[in-house]
Amino acid sequence: MSAGDATLTPDNSESFFGHPKGLFYLAFTEAWERFSYYGMTALLVLYMVNQVLLPGHVENIAGFEGFRGALESVVGPLSPLALASQLFGLYTGFVYFTPVLGGMIADRWIGQRNAVVIGALSMSAGHIAMAFDQTFLLALLLLIIGSGFLKGNISAQVGALYPLDDEARRTRGFAIFSMAINFGAVCGPLLCGFLAQYYGWHYGFGVAAIFMLAGLVTYLSGYRHLPARAKRRDQASEKLTSADWRIIRVLLVVMLITIFQSVSYYQVANVFQVWVQQHVDLSVGSLSIPIAWYQSIDPLVSILAVPLLFGIWQLQASRRGEPSDLGKIGVGAWLAATANLILVVAIVSSGDEPIHPLWPALYCAGLGVAFLYYWPTLLALVSRAAPASANATMMGIAFLTLFVSNNLIGWVGRFYEQMSPTLFWSMHAAIAATGGVLVMVFGRRLTQALYVEDAQPMRPSAMTLEVER
Known about the structure:
Blueprint lengths: L14 E2 L2 E2 H32 L11 H12 L4 H50 L6 H25 L6 H33 L1 H21 L20 H25 L4 H9 L3 E2 L2 E2 L5 H25 L6 H26 L7 H28 L5 H23 L7 H30 L9 H5 L5
Antiparallel strand pairs: 1-2, 3-4
Helix pairs in contact: 1-3, 1-4, 1-5, 1-6, 3-4, 3-6, 3-12, 5-6, 5-9, 7-10, 7-11, 7-12, 7-13, 9-11, 10-11, 10-13, 11-12
């Protein structure tokens, strides 16, 4: 991996279903990587609550006493559950922050291809380190660093496979790439959750490591077909006008509104799993449902619901009633609120009896539809409306809202033990509803402010991660 590597171009003389052959390697690399990431993440909170943060284990974690002391000096004393929630929020939050740095390093120095290899190696080491109490914090750090190098740079390589003027084929390539993301998001929790429940935590983490290594092998196998550095249009001469700055300010307000939806949504991967463990009857005949399996419902619904939503929006458009982008973001907020109210209804209707496993499944399904309404719409809106010379920056800022949201879900999750489950999930419904109310109050003015007569088309960057969590 030398400096000269940055000048190499991919060998795309062969094609993959009409696309550059490099797309095959990138899609399968992403499928393995997302499999490992979502599989590990589905286990993380339960692993912390049920094992690694308990007496007899927590004392063995290298550097943990100092880390906990520093954390509690900021947020106050933490119980094991509150500590697990805060740790999960920090981990998932920084997973969305470090790609900004990884992209800068790749653009300026090492190129996307080298960055992805470094990221895959770091993530593989992180998954392996999860097998030992002593290296738990190191494992999280390696996974955060690895995701920073891999997450954005592999997406940039997809676009770099195509000529700059080949918009149609590039967009279809991103759609294929997104299918790989969803495949990993659905299958990872299923297999890792099964192995962790029936054979032990480290089997679940171990298979995540194996699939991350498989992703690295896949990537290296197609190394010569992949671009070393993504080509970009020269926009140095483009200066932002006052109208551009107005649009940027409006987009920032829209992003802030979506944080309410994201806080309500992302709790599904955090305290929700603890609540399921405590209150849901997971027995179905002789089978005990692995809690991690619920993490597969949301991405599965996000796949299956796409044609249905497209049909609904087309029908609404034919009747001149399709919601605007802000309207769809608002609908997503209300759907997220409704999903959380499903848990409230389940708790109240069940009384002192264990809750039927169908209720949390409906909650996850509702969040999957809510996600489709607000998050891809936000990315498409930013990609279309943001000025060309600031488009990539604004897309990066959109993902930084997930950094904020995930840190907030860790903080909010600390109150679970201090509140009744009914009040806790009602609070999350109210948080999501706040986003809906803000859209109702300010949506029309924000939409008018964003209207540009010569609107830019949606860029493929919005297609890349539009269904990724």
